[in-house]
């Protein structure tokens, strides 16, 4: 048997004319809607900005419209592609006894199955080979070489897809940094019968994306607009399709397309597929957490601005949370702020207490911690406007004042930009929210520190909604922030360089519930402390709040809230917190001013 595998004599040879006729047959069937993209610019040492930009545009369009595309000049040698398909053909020509000797890796569909094929499946490092007397080292070497090339290509595609989504190039590689779930599968489809030509029924792939190489026979079809589009095979082309993970992470912007395999008549079909997967325990709930690239607003990219506003509008309407990248806040500043705050909070309590709030402060700026006992476990260092005389900073951390001041100013700038974006997302003049909220003296920056969880208590900050206009959160890599949606708590996975944005009560009232202020909380991690910053982009305490006429009178809708002074709401909310701490359930928060009485936990 090893001699047979070392030779290609057992492989059914097709004449050049036979192959060309089969290719022509498939091309005549095919629609040319599935684009073929030259990815060579991504592999060249000399920068080809025009080539990479053009390729990215085509890939983005294909992922949005079809979830499928084909690539050429991908860096995988043509000879290796052919040798790999030949190796699989040779294996599938073996007896069932020989094929079944590959433990847990070979599978043949049952007679009553809706599928009619057999496959050979391996996950790196191909441990199944060690027990397989039917497979020679040559076969193993070819497949290992193939997986190495597929993995390298997958890393390149990760970067491309990340940028096509407006994310940092390393976003997907950071999210999906474990290669242990990747797998390579060779497939053999038997010839169709008169009664059935189904090879693989309609399905979507569950992973990040899939890379496929098919022989000259064809049979792969993609579902689009209620039609099945054949993907005609072509020498050296690879088919790439988006999986469920990317669809979820992109909040349905990129599609995981339905596809199937139709068995050809009177001949066998061979292909192999590389599944670029994630760990089984990776949380995919960030579909609720769209990540928005704000760079178009700094570059004057009108089309990019429009798309970003659409994503933000949907996120604010449905969830009240989203993340932003390329926001203008220097990454170095964010990193330094987290390191300095961590250093401060690790100081002895006596030293931190030297930064206790000054008497008479309108808000307790300085160091504070939750009383013991408390249902929350967090420490704070609060900063008011940089010019405030009530700010208190540690004498032994002189850089902290400067860094927090810089961070405060950067957050205030991005807050003004977001006010304009949100105004336009709501269909209002760009200056609407800025004109309403034109005083910056009430903004607050807070550094937070959460102790590691204990066996009995994991709560960091209990379920709540933020009181201001907009909140920005800079969190370290530990995580712990969770958002409530449909009765479930969704973790907000930290992303390097990203800021979390959530809508506050003020915007919920102004928009008459068009935008939601969601419940969220912080769960303390096991075995690790957590550091973060929150910037509260607020309105002044004396501000009069009521739904804007744009969302009531002008569209003939009744207001959901009576008008009130912001400080009155803050007082009622504080009373509510005191009652909750005492074990009472009475709600005297925003529902006190609600005309519909449907608000919870304010």
From TrEMBL:
What is the protein name given in its UniProt record? Answer: Fe2OG dioxygenase domain-containing protein
What InterPro entries does the annotation carry? DIOX_N, IPNS-like_FE2OG_OXY, IPNS-like_sf, Iron_ascorbate_oxido_reductase, Oxoglu/Fe-dep_dioxygenase_dom
What are the boundaries of the signal sequence? none
User: Record's Gene3D superfamilies?
Assistant: B-lactam Antibiotic, Isopenicillin N Synthase, Chain
Q: Which UniProt keywords apply?
A: Iron, Metal-binding, Vitamin C
Top-rank taxon: Eukaryota
Any one GO biological process: coumarin biosynthetic process
List, alphabetically, the PANTHER family matched.
2-OXOGLUTARATE (2OG) AND FE(II)-DEPENDENT OXYGENASE SUPERFAMILY PROTEIN-RELATED
Domain (Fe2OG dioxygenase) spans 180-278, 441-539
**GO MF entries:** 2-oxoglutarate-dependent dioxygenase activity; L-ascorbic acid binding; metal ion binding
- The keyword Ion transport is assigned to this record: no
Keyword Iron included in the entry's annotation:
yes
- Coiled-coil boundaries: none
Could you tell me which Pfam families the record lists for this protein? 2OG-FeII_Oxy, DIOX_N
């Amino acid at each position: 048997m090893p001699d047979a595998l070392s030779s290609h004599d057992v492989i059914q040879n097709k004449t050049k004319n036979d192959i060309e006729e089969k290719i022509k047959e498939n091309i005549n069937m095919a629609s040319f809607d599935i684009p073929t993209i030259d990815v060579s610019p991504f592999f060249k040492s000399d920068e080809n900005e025009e080539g990479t930009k053009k390729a990215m545009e085509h890939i983005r369009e294909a992922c949005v419209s079809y979830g499928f595309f084909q690539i050429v000049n991908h860096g995988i040698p043509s000879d290796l592609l052919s040798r790999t398909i030949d190796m699989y053909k040779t294996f599938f020509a073996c007896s069932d006894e020989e094929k079944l000797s590959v433990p847990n890796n070979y599978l043949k569909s049952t007679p009553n199955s809706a599928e009619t094929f057999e496959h050979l499946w391996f996950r790196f490092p191909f441990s199944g080979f060690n027990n397989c007397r039917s497979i020679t080292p040559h076969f193993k070497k070819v497949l290992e070489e193939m997986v190495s090339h597929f993995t390298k290509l997958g890393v390149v595609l990760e970067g491309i897809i990340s940028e096509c989504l407006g994310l940092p190039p390393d976003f997907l590689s950071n999210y999906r940094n474990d290669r242990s779930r990747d797998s390579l599968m060779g497939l053999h489809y038997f010839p169709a019968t008169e009664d059935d030509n189904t090879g693989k029924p309609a399905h979507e792939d569950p992973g990040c994306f899939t890379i496929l190489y098919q022989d000259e026979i064809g049979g792969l079809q993609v579902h689009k607009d209620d039609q099945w589009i054949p993907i005609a095979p072509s020498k050296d082309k690879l088919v790439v399709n988006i999986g469920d993970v990317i669809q979820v992470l992109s909040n349905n912007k990129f599609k995981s397309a339905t596809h199937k395999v139709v068995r050809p008549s009177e001949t066998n079909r061979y292909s192999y597929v590389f599944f670029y997967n994630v760990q089984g325990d990776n949380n995919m709930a960030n579909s609720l957490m769209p990540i928005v690239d704000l760079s178009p607003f700094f570059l004057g990219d009108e089309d990019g601005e429009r798309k970003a506003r659409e994503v933000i509008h949907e996120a604010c309407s449905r969830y009240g949370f989203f993340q932003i990248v390329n926001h203008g806040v220097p990454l170095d500043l964010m990193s330094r702020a987290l390191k300095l705050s961590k250093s401060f909070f690790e100081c002895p309590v006596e030293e931190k207490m030297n930064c206790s709030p000054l008497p008479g402060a309108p808000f307790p700026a300085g160091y504070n911690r939750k009383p013991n006992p408390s249902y929350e476990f967090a420490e704070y260092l609060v900063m008011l406007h940089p010019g405030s005389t009530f700010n208190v900073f540690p004498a032994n951390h002189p850089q902290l004042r400067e860094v927090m001041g810089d961070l405060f100013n950067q957050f205030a700038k991005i807050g003004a930009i977001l006010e304009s974006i949100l105004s336009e997302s709501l269909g209002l003049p760009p200056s609407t929210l800025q004109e309403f909220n034109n005083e910056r003296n009430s903004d607050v920056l807070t550094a937070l520190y959460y102790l590691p969880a204990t066996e009995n208590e994991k709560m960091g900050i209990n379920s709540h909604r933020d009181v201001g206009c907009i909140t920005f959160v800079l969190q370290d890599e530990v995580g712990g922030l969770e958002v409530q949606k449909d009765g479930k708590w969704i973790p907000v996975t930290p992303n390097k360089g990203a800021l979390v944005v959530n809508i506050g009560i003020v915007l919920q009232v102004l928009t008459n519930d068009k935008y939601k202020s969601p419940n969220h909380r912080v769960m303390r991690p096991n075995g690790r402390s957590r550091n973060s910053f929150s910037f509260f982009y607020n309105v002044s305490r004396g501000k009069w709040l009521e739904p804007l006429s744009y969302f009531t009178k002008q569209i003939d809708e009744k207001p959901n809230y009576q008008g009130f002074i912001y400080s009155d709401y803050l007082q009622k909310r504080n009373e509510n917190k005191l009652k909750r701490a005492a074990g009472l359930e009475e709600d005297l928060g925003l529902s006190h001013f609600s005309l519909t009485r449907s608000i919870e936990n304010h």
